[in-house]
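**User:** My hope is that you can spare some time for a protein that puzzles me. As I understand it, each token names a local backbone shape. I would be glad if you read both lines and explained how they fit together. The protein I mean follows directly.
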Amino acid sequence: MTLVKICGIKNEQTLGLLSECGVDYAGFVFAPSKRQVTAAAVGEMLREVSQHPPAVGVFVNPTLEELTQVLAEAPLAVIQLHGQETPAFCQEVKERFSLPVWKAVAVGKEGDTADQLAAYAATVDAFLFDTYDPAQAGGTGKRFTWEEIPGLRAACQGITEVIAGGIHAGNVTELVAHYQPAVIDLSSGVETDGEKDAQKIRELMERVKGHV
């Protein structure tokens, strides 16, 4: 069954709703973004909402010191790296913090994706495929060509694939039915005017899992 990560959580109400709806991962953005949150705020949210999905922290080119500071205040379950982090850095993060590492890979960028994945294969726990945009590291809300998913999955060499970019209730049935991704990741697809929309989250989860 496809798991669901909803990213860009900014308040306790939305975090509590994720549990009610059966969302599998809650994403918190620590990199500069309109959805950026502080470690202190995330720590408070996770304490206040006792039943919450595993927390995924999203970072862009962090230092080890930054990760240490965030984890001291926010008990993350996964570290997601969305910048130009090297395989060696990913390995160091895994070893130092004993947490799974998800590495974002831009789809549509020039270069051999298979070679890139091979370089990271021994150092990460999942690859997150998002639509390439020269202006920002992720969160574009743009869909890449899903016909590429089988080839990307084959290049993952058995490592979990996470599909992001332009997913919403109107197209998620097509994505899940045709490609059965291990995990899907979305943010703007369940927002209205830049804020998480409870009805859109419920509708998406109904379509992915058949219940709320």
